[in-house]
Design a protein that fits this description.
4 strands; 68 residues; alpha+beta; elongated; four-stranded mixed sheet
């Protein structure tokens, strides 16, 4: 695996929720700097050094509701 993708959503109580696609990794963070640190740490914990992805891609998803 060369790349891992995380979907990043706003947490209801503030901060961010990060979920990896194709692998079972989940983490939460209070701000963007904390998010970067926690996602890297989660990837390091999940993979052996020889199989760790070289790229971590963060895909921010924002839900917006408007009146019809």
């Amino acid at each position: 695996m060369n790349e891992i993708i995380f979907l990043i959503e706003d947490a209801p109580e503030g901060g961010f929720i990060a979920r990896a696609l194709d692998v079972s990794i989940f983490t939460e963070a209070d701000d963007i700097n904390d998010l970067h640190h926690k996602v890297r740490d989660a990837v390091d914990c999940h993979f052996e050094p020889s199989s760790k992805p070289k790229i971590i891609r963060l895909h921010f998803v924002r839900e917006e509701v408007i009146a019809a």
